[in-house]
Amino acid sequence: MNKSTIHPDETLLTAYSAGSLPLSQALCISAHVEHCPTCQQEIKHLNDLGSELMQQLKPSPGSTDLKAQLLARLDSLDETHEAPTRIDKTISRCLHQFIKNGYQNLAWKRVSPDIHSVELCRDSNGAKVELLRIKPGGAATTHTHLGDEYTVILEGSFSDESGLYQKGDFLLRDASHQHRPVATQDGECICLAVTEGPIQFTGLFSRLLNPLIRRSYA
Ligand SMILES: [Zn+2]
Fold first, then answer.
1. pTM of the predicted structure, to 2 decimals
2. How far is the CA of 6 from the centre of ligand 1 (A)?
3. How many angstroms separate the CA atoms of 191 and 42, rounded?
4. 171-215 per-position pLDDT tens digit
């Protein structure tokens, strides 16, 4: 089943608002929300609901902590409207901690003639958080995934069998979905990608790569 969507669905936004998503997924939601006024409104609404619910509960040491977390989250949402000061303003705020000196200065590794990647971190659940950089008109190898794959477009745009995706768009692909993203000709495409399991290449020759890729998740 193709689970792709331009926005994260209600379940993901609710879990994000409640602070219950793994770090890797929360980063993808944050990166999308920075570009999406609709989801900013939705999260503010969910946060307000959470706040109301909290006030109806009897205070306990635990709920005080929760409320502090909630308020901090609201503050950080407001901060997304401030202009970043020191570093490249094109970098998503939630990624500043990983990218101190701009996209160009990251330790990009060549994946194929068209694609470079750099790993930003690993989540405690093993998910890999990385940036992908696809040259204008460049294509990724046709692949499926062993787990879910989250993608947020940070710069540029790409298309695949299902449509055209642009800056800020959020995609969720599950293991059964086979696709081949191609960057548009007008510029380089930079994506935040979270993969919960190794990618399975499905092309005849690239299938030979699968054991090597799997090893990188061990
Ligand atoms: Zn949205």
1. 0.73
2. 7
3. 23
4. 988 877 777 889 999 999 999 999 886 655 666 555 555 665 566
